[in-house]
Amino acid sequence: MQINGIKGRIEQNVSLRTLSTWKIGGIAEWVIWPKDSDELETLWCWAHENQIPIRLIGRGSNLLFPDEGLKGITVVSTALNREIWKECSLKAEAGCSLARLAQEAGERGMNGLEFARGIPGTLGGAIVMNAGAHGGEIQNVLRSVKVLTEDGGVRTFDKKEIAFGYRECSLQGKAWILEAKLQFEPGNKEEIKRQMAENLEKRRAAQPSELPNAGSVFRNPPGDSAGRLIEQAGWKGKGIGGAQVSPKHANFIVNLGNATAQDVLALIEAIQNDVLAKFGVRLQTEVHYISPV
Questions:
Q1: What is the CATH number of domain 208-289?
Q2: Strand 164-165 versus strand 168-169 pairing type
Q3: CA neighbor of 171 nearest in space, from 155, 187, 193
Q4: I need a surface site. Which of 50, 166, 192, 281 has the fewest CB within 10 A?
Q5: Which residues share a beta bridge with 164?
Q6: Model confidence over 118-135: pLDDT tens digits?
Q7: Residues with pLDDT less than 50, the chain
Q8: Could you say which of 114, 167, 179, 246 is catalytic?
Q9: Which runs of consecutive H residues, i.e. helices, occur in 174-281?
Q10: pLDDT tens for residues 258-288?
Q11: Is 68 helix (H, G, I), strand (E, B) or coil?
Q12: Which residue is catalytic, options 20, 37, 61, 216?
């Protein structure tokens, strides 16, 4: 595939397992790593002009790819990683590692991203799903976002123009994040680093990092914990095919080595139905399944 103006890496017939922290999925017809935002815009326009399916992903840390694979173009944002640091502020492209930005903010004595030190996704993905942990959320430090809209235009939104909720925002499914500006508070460098180290240790102790997973599978229902409900329903350690509810944390589904997307989807549905029957709560997924095209 040759597209004028694209200098980034282009590969054909790529295993989606290599693009997902769950290590699940079939073959992507084309995968492109654009070098900058201009190339991202070029790709979007070219695909729509030629009626080719296209979707944007980051590090694949919150996604379930289909066993059937994906037709068209899968765009990976990780090469969009330019950043400009100023006094208590940052302008960064969507593909920047959120965890690394958190570490850098801490090294600079900037408060606000301590919660994100162990989150494996990109800045763009974090904004789209309003990522959070340990009482913090990305919306708390966001100042503005530059996006590629559904009609192919580029627009900048101030934070006040975006509606945020629990693991969601109004840009979800409506725009591609290009870059964002974050605002921090000055803080004590050693205290920030101590807090990040404590958050990392909590994650390591509670989460099954030894096996492929996509983080928390379900959103916590109001006033409760999805993990608690799943464990109370008796699902901890149980599985379907190669997918298993982690014995370490019931809101994680791990890939034992040969899990398929259908294994995961069947397990998710079984858990949802059982928790609804036993507790009257319909669990909503936090992870996103990308349907085959």
A1: 3.90.78.10
A2: antiparallel
A3: 155
A4: 50
A5: 169
A6: 898 999 999 999 999 888
A7: none
A8: 167
A9: 189-206, 226-232, 261-279
A10: 999 999 999 999 999 999 999 999 999 999 9
A11: coil
A12: 216
Told to judge if 216 belongs to the known catalytic residues of this protein, a careful annotator would answer: yes
Amino acid at 159: K
Residue that is written with structure tokens 């640091």 in the block: 85
The dihedral built from the CA positions of residue 69, 74, 79 and 85, taken in this order, carries a sign that is negative
What pLDDT sits at residue 1?
75
Sequence ranges of the domains in the chain: 9-76, 83-205, 208-289
The C-alpha atoms of residue 81 and residue 95 are separated, in whole angstroms, by 5
Candidates 41, 93, 179, 286; catalytic one: 286
Which top CATH class is 9-76?
A: alpha beta
Q: Which helix (H) or strand (E) holds 76?
A: strand 70-76
User: How many residues are present in the chain?
Assistant: 293
Q: Does the pTM of the predicted model rise above 0.85?
A: yes
Question: So what CATH class is 83-205?
Answer: alpha beta
Please report, as a single letter, which amino acid is at residue 202.
K
